[in-house]
């Protein structure tokens, strides 16, 4: 069993429930996903005149769009009550969750280390900006982004980092990878919004390589966008 199959199975069980219970589970999913992943446009699906098949597909996609930590909590909140109706299926889902939680335990600490490192970078960048050292802030932002790009390419995309990749190349590869992932799993997310990865990377590349004048506005732009990009990538790595 993998997460795609598990999400399909959970949605299938919910849609197989008696009507009154089905609505309770749907509302629970709706509320939880809206709170933890507001980019998922649930209301546009649930309030429109959509066929049940479309609603089912959307719930599967929305579950896959959640970070694993939140997805596990959604499953735990649902399968306890679902076990009354589907004991065998829920038992299989519980075993799968136990395996994923064990893996997630190790993943959590690795992810925490990456977030802590990002926060240390941001603290240094903020210090450089506050002291008027804007070129240093840009350099640190570029170094931070390169480090997390390389991690994403190596651990998520399984690229060979013995090859030489420029920052712009890495950004394009990552953009294409995430866009393909979103489309494959029918996750509603604007491809245009993803372009901030390549746009920010190119702006940093030009600022670092062209010896252009760097002011506070550019340094702050770099800081805020690097923070957004890295935290976005951590959803997938």
Could you explain the architecture of this structure?
Residues about 45-50 have low confidence and may be disordered. The protein is built from 11 helices and no strands. The two termini are about 20 Å apart. The chain has about 240 residues and is mostly helical. The protein has helices at about 5-15, 20-35, 40-45, 50-65, 70-80, 85-130, 135-155, 165-185, 190-195, 195-210, 215-235. Helix 1 (about 5-15) runs antiparallel to helix 4.
Structural class: mainly alpha
Mean pLDDT figure: 83
What integer value in Å does the Rg equal? 21 Å
- Structural shape: elongated
Uncertain runs with pLDDT below 50, 5 residues or more? 43-51
Helix content: over 70%
Helix-strand pattern, N to C? HHHHHHHHHHH
Largest sheet: none
What is the CA-CA span between the terminal residues?
20 Å
Number of strands: 0
- Number of continuous helical runs: 11
User: Strand-residue fraction?
Assistant: under 5%
Question: What key phrases describe this protein's structure?
Answer:
237 residues; elongated; mainly alpha; 11 helices
TL;DR?
With 237 residues, this protein is mainly alpha-helical. The chain has helices at 3-15, 19-36, 42-46, 52-65, 68-82, 87-130, 134-156, 167-184, 191-194, 196-209, 216-233.
SSE order and pairing:
Blueprint: H1 3-15, H2 19-36, H3 42-46, H4 52-65, H5 68-82, H6 87-130, H7 134-156, H8 167-184, H9 191-194, H10 196-209, H11 216-233
Helix pairs in contact: 1-4, 5-6, 6-7, 6-11, 7-8, 7-10, 7-11, 8-10, 10-11
């Amino acid at each position: 069993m993998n997460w795609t199959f598990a999400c399909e199975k959970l949605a299938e069980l919910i849609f197989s429930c008696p009507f009154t219970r089905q609505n309770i589970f749907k509302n629970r999913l709706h509320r939880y996903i809206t709170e933890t992943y507001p980019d998922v446009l649930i209301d546009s699906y649930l309030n429109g005149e959509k066929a049940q098949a479309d609603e089912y597909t959307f719930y599967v996609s929305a579950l896959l769009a959640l970070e694993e930590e939140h997805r596990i909590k959604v499953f735990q909140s649902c399968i306890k009550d679902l076990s009354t109706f589907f004991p065998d299926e829920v038992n299989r889902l519980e075993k799968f969750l136990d395996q994923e939680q064990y893996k997630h335990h190790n993943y959590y600490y690795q992810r925490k280390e990456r977030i802590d490192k990002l926060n240390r970078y941001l603290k240094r960048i903020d210090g450089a900006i506050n002291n008027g050292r804007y070129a240093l802030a840009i350099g640190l932002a570029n170094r931070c982004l390169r480090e997390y790009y390389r991690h994403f390419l190596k651990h998520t995309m399984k690229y060979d980092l013995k090859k030489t990749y420029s920052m712009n190349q890495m950004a394009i590869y990552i953009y294409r990878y995430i866009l393909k992932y979103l489309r494959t799993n029918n996750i509603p997310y604007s491809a245009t919004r993803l372009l901030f990865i390549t746009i920010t990377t190119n702006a940093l590349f030009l600022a670092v390589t062209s010896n252009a004048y760097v002011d506070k506005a550019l340094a702050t732009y770099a800081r805020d966008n690097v923070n957004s990009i890295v935290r976005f990538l951590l959803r997938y790595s």
